[in-house]
Amino acid sequence: MSKHQPTIIGIGGFASNSGKTTLLCDLLQRFPGWEAIKTTRGHYRSCGKDPHSCCVSDLLGDQPRIRSGRADTYAVGKDTGRYWEAGAANVHWVIATQEQVGSGITQALKLVNAKGVFVEGNSFSSFVAVDLMIMVARGSGSPVKGSARKALAISSAFYLTGEASLQANSSEREQFQEALTRSGLIHAASLPIYTRSELSQLAEQVRETSCTLGN
User: Fold this and answer.
1) Going from the N-terminus, what domains does the chain have, and what CATH number goes with each?
2) Which terminal CB of the chain, N or C, has fewer other CB atoms within 10 Å?
3) Number of H helices, E strands in the chain
4) Per-residue model confidence as pLDDT tens digits over 166-193
5) Which residues, in sequence order, are CB contacts of 49 under 8 Å at separation 6+?
6) 74 with 38: CB under 8 angstroms?
7) Residues 6+ apart with CB under 8 A from 70
8) Which 8-state DSSP code applies to residue 69?
9) Is the Cβ–Cβ distance between 95 and 63 less than 8 Å?
10) Has residue 5 got a pLDDT over 80?
11) CA–CA separation, 3 and 87 (whole Å)
């Protein structure tokens, strides 16, 4: 008998520090029993940022590294620790080079026993079939990352955070859509846009996606 295939919900970032971890945690609170996966792409040298909070070069090897369970993934203040605090049934952390991301995410998904899993990151979506991809952005002034451009091709919705979320009236939405169009992201400009006040509607889209798949 084949193993159960969970509903895969991707949480991508339009730009750095967009707030995707916060959204993932908000959704975890609304989907008790679901799991979460964090994907971290590393390289064999310092990235120039604080090595104690960012770099994973010392964790890289010939194969992607997967850490699972509270003992190996919980740390106060870290993204994976926040997943646990939000109520994740299990947390998996994929640490890989660019070339290893596909293998790493495939291995991590095999460890998921829940009916659904939230996966944070952009790059992983090039290697697995994502059931619903949500792109998190801070508004019309956000520069788009290269990895986000690829993920946008399969995205189904935007979630605005920060000041954009607090002031997301029709004008702010239109400005964001116009910025997407100017950047040549025509498909993305037509996607629905959610804000924090509409988090329940976004959660309902996640729930409908899962129900459609029979999960």
Assistant:
1) 7-212 (3.40.50.300)
2) N
3) 9, 8
4) 555 677 788 888 889 988 888 899 999 9
5) 55
6) no
7) 84, 91
8) S
9) no
10) yes
11) 24
